[in-house]
From TrEMBL:
<feature type="binding site">
    <location>
        <position position="268"/>
    </location>
    <ligand>
        <name>Mn(2+)</name>
    </ligand>
</feature>
<dbReference type="Pfam" id="PF00491">
    <property type="entry name" value="Arginase"/>
</dbReference>
<keyword id="KW-0378">Hydrolase</keyword>
<comment type="similarity">
    <text>Belongs to the arginase family.</text>
</comment>
<feature type="binding site">
    <location>
        <position position="185"/>
    </location>
    <ligand>
        <name>Mn(2+)</name>
    </ligand>
</feature>
<feature type="binding site">
    <location>
        <position position="181"/>
    </location>
    <ligand>
        <name>Mn(2+)</name>
    </ligand>
</feature>
<feature type="binding site">
    <location>
        <position position="266"/>
    </location>
    <ligand>
        <name>Mn(2+)</name>
    </ligand>
</feature>
<keyword id="KW-0056">Arginine metabolism</keyword>
<keyword id="KW-0464">Manganese</keyword>
<comment type="pathway">
    <text>Nitrogen metabolism; urea cycle; L-ornithine and urea from L-arginine: step 1/1.</text>
</comment>
<dbReference type="InterPro" id="IPR006035">
    <property type="entry name" value="Ureohydrolase"/>
</dbReference>
<dbReference type="GO" id="GO:0004053">
    <property type="term" value="F:arginase activity"/>
</dbReference>
<dbReference type="GO" id="GO:0033389">
    <property type="term" value="P:putrescine biosynthetic process from arginine, via agmatine"/>
</dbReference>
<protein>
    <recommendedName>
        <fullName>arginase</fullName>
        <ecNumber>3.5.3.1</ecNumber>
    </recommendedName>
</protein>
<dbReference type="GO" id="GO:0046872">
    <property type="term" value="F:metal ion binding"/>
</dbReference>
<feature type="binding site">
    <location>
        <position position="183"/>
    </location>
    <ligand>
        <name>Mn(2+)</name>
    </ligand>
</feature>
<keyword id="KW-0479">Metal-binding</keyword>
């Protein structure tokens, strides 16, 4: 049973009426779903009004936290990441300006609609299929309030599937995806879970949500992963060949002929020396500046992005990886906001 069957009128985001829910869920579940979506919708409406009143921007980055960690195959700590990333974004140890000179205190550059209440929905028995739809519907609510564009704080990498699906449905066509990761996350169903964080890009490619998928920084991949990459025509850039691929990657132009570019950054794309606070430590990764050189030189219309797989439970005492994740968010904001 999909959430589309129990949320009849959610497509009409512009109305003030919350979706009509069928009898397939308990009254408690109905109330939690309706309240969750209402929360995001009203916050998005207020933030968009603030941006428009401040002079407008086309587009403007909008943070949406998705504290989901139970689809992790090893540790579930990424569920605790969104508040830690926000704390680091506004940490007094640095200023609020991005490397390209955009000031995050300007609401035309960055706003925040808070978190999708994942745990509250899980507590009342809502399973993964409905959770994924609720995440996607939350993204659509943000996008329905121009000029906001979604910048997602994960959470584990399973959230990228519903986010990308929602963006492409809202825009009416596929996107190009630039994906930084130590792993391709393209198993058909890792450990039998089709919503595993290790299977998110299989769902994206099966659904036709990406024209091109470029995966950068991969250094942990098995036979199934390579077969899936071949099956879906993924453009794989492994760390063992990064020295020869660098020039190409630092001169990317994506999104022409499709609805734009989506950027997904798994914090374990970095070498553990730069980001020890991740669940899967894979030596031999990218440096932070490697990622920035690719990101800042990228040409294309960025329609959304995410930073995922930061695990605060494995971070250093001084929050080193939290600051790295926050820096990713800050610089993605600079690419999204104009």
């Amino acid at each position: 049973m999909t959430i589309a069957r129990y949320v009849k009128s959610l497509a009409s985001f512009g109305t003030r009426n919350v979706s009509t829910v069928t009898k397939t869920l308990s009254e408690r579940q109905k109330s939690v779903v309706e309240a969750s979506l209402t929360l995001i919708r009203e916050r998005a409406r207020l933030k968009a009004e603030l941006v428009r009143a401040s002079g407008g921007a086309i587009p403007s980055s909008c943070l949406l936290g998705v504290p989901l960690g139970h689809n992790s195959s090893f540790l579930q700590g990424p569920a605790f990441a969104p508040p830690r990333i926000r704390e680091a974004i506004w940490c007094g140890s640095t200023n609020s300006t991005t490397e390209t000179g955009k000031d995050l205190v300007d609401p035309c550059i960055l706003t925040d609609v808070g978190d999708v209440p994942i745990q509250e929905m899980r507590d009342c028995g809502i399973g993964d299929e409905l959770l994924m739809k609720a995440i996607g519907d939350s993204v659509k609510l943000v996008m329905s309030e121009p000029p906001l564009r979604p910048l997602i704080l994960g959470g584990d990498h399973s959230i990228t599937y519903p986010v990308v699906k929602a963006i492409t449905e809202q825009l009416g066509g596929p996107v190009d995806i630039l994906h930084f990761d130590a792993h391709p996350d393209i198993y058909h169903a890792f450990e039998g879970n089709i919503y595993s964080h290790a299977s998110s890009f299989a769902r994206i490619m099966e659904g036709g949500h990406a024209r091109r998928l470029l995966q950068v920084g991969v250094r942990s991949i098995n036979k199934e992963g390579r077969e899936q990459i071949k099956r879906f025509g993924v453009e794989l850039f492994e760390m063992r060949k990064f020295h020869t691929d660098r020039e190409f990657l630092e001169n990317l132009e994506l999104g022409a002929g499709v609805k734009g570019v989506y950027i997904s950054i798994d914090c374990d794309c970095l070498d553990p020396a730069f980001a020890p606070g991740v669940s899967h430590l894979e030596p031999g990764g990218l440096s932070f500046r490697d990622v920035m050189n690719i990101l800042q030189n990228l040409k294309g219309d960025i329609v959304g992005g995410d930073v995922v797989e930061f695990n605060p439970q494995r971070d250093t005492a001084d929050g080193m990886t939290a600051m790295v994740a926050a820096k990713f968010v800050r610089e993605l904001t600079a690419k999204l906001s104009k």
